[in-house]
């Protein structure tokens, strides 16, 4: 029985250490997710300094999270840890694409390939958000650039035809991205048509004014549609 007590005591110490590491990782994961969210909010608001500060904080937390779980690889690959690192990827890629800056690779971000791809998939939603913010003020060629990036992301993701156990559920994210892209394409098309209609009306109005510069009837007709 004495030997059994020694065995169980060692097991208890192992469990204590794993529990402590898990609790610490959960706290770090929450902080990392928050910093990433704030970085994305800042880039949408065009607050470059704030964005960079939050990205730097996120980088430090991601490094700390990774180091703290070096002795517990099973905890590192647990859902909450990889979800937080996915947010880290999403924040860095979103900020780079919106600001038209070079992308960081999975190696530079120190994340797993599947985590990188799932973070990339979620970027599509942020690019839609950016596109809609732009379209609120009228059509702009910038939304075409963003739509092109969204299409490129989808084109890459759809070729990753591997089991979900390998990609960590990327197929579902790919399907969601396709729907987001098609909605955005429709919004851009609608805005562009409205822009063309406004330009056509403006040209017609200018032509009428040039053809009848002093005709009160023409001006009255134009005024009342």
How would you sum up this structure, described in words?
- The protein has helices at 2-44, 48-68, 73-76, 79-98, 106-109, 113-135, 141-157, 164-167, 170-211, 216-223.
- With 225 residues, the chain is mostly helical.
- The protein has a domain at 1-104: Up-down Bundle (Methane Monooxygenase Hydroxylase, Chain G, domain 1).
- Helix 1 (2-44) packs antiparallel against helix 2, helix 2 (48-68) packs antiparallel against helix 4 (79-98) and helix 4 (79-98) packs across helix 6 (113-135).
Averaged pLDDT: 87
CATH level-two architecture of the domain at 1-104: Up-down Bundle
Any idea what the shape is? elongated
Per CATH, the class of the domain at 1-104 reads Mainly Alpha
Per the CATH scheme, the topology name of the domain at 1-104 is Methane Monooxygenase Hydroxylase, Chain G, domain 1
SSE topology string: HHHHHHHHHH
Beta content comes to under 5%
In DSSP terms (H or I, runs of 4 or more residues), the helix count works out at 10
Distance between the termini: 98 Å
How many beta strands in the DSSP annotation?
0
